[in-house]
Amino acid sequence: xxxxxxxxxxxxxxxxxxxxxxxxxxxxxxxxxxxxxxxxxxxxxxxxxxxxxxxxxxxxxxxxxxxxxxxxxxxxxxxxxxxxxxxxxxxxxxxxxxxxxxxxxxxxxxxxxxxxxxxxxxxxxxxxxxxxxxxxxxxxxxxxxxxxxxxxxxxxxxxxxxxxxxxxxxxxxxxxxxxxxxxxxxxxxxxxxxxxxxxxxxxxxxxxxxxxxxxxxxxxxxxxxxxxxxxxxxxxxxxxxxxxxxxxxxxxxxxxxxxxxxxxxxxxxxxxxxxxxxxxxxxxxxxxxxxxxxxxxxxxxxxxxxxxxxxxxxxxxxxxxxxxxxxxxxxxxxxxxxxxxxxxxxxxxxxxxxxxxxxxxxxxxxxxxxxxxxxxxxxxxxxxxx
Length: 386
What we know:
By secondary structure, the protein is an alpha+beta fold. The protein has eight helices and twelve strands.
């Protein structure tokens, strides 16, 4: 589990606890207020009944005071036929007040001595209604807080990680510079003494490769300079470099065809131009090939296929290795993730960063089947002809 994932889960858990606690407490308050309003309506109903039954000599000020003090709870008085006779604190009467609450019955005798029964129904006060909606507003605010906090946290950690990567890479390039310069001096000395030695050209190739590697590290963290570059020679050059440095049990092949709603035809070395930083893109191709070699255990077939669809250049790197488990696919490009006992697990992560962040393309696993192999796909926009 990544640091960002762990902290995000922590923030989410704390926020959910706050939401649950807030909802519980608010519902408790709402229930208590509902009970209080029910009691107040009961007292209001009794005061109304006493007022109706009061004779001319009885002091009714107490009853009228109780009735007048109810200026928040909507109440309805209905007759036995459910016809509304009186309302209080009601701005928009409901069609059927009998659905609001249990009826409170009041009974008295009219002027003609006939028994009369009326029923009082009541609705929630505006305060109680608003209190019931408070948890939803709280949830919305907390959810917004979670989104902003997680976004800020992930952005901060990602920025911090990027700075660490850039610093580490530049320091690596700097540290490589001193011994590389010394090795170049020793090479020139050996060349002067043994000009016909057949191993010196290979040493020169490896020293040049070390210079390229140092240049790659120096570019990580900086905005790379992209220029229209023929992609086929880069792929071929990388394959040739890797071919002589791996077991002869690994067969490497390259195939380039053009698919763009046109007849099938071969792609020439210079026909496909992509905005690239060559040293960085060579690094990506090299990482994918090394990853394929590791997946095959040093024995099998690696096939690189280049094609064009519309204005997108597609490169597939396929191997006949052990394949990738489905559960591992989601972590495959995360820094530090590796299925090997040795290694830092940075190759695929760095490759994805170079392709997507620096070149605006895509790098993903196209297919993978256990025991049969994996295909990684790179998609890049073809450079427009000037």
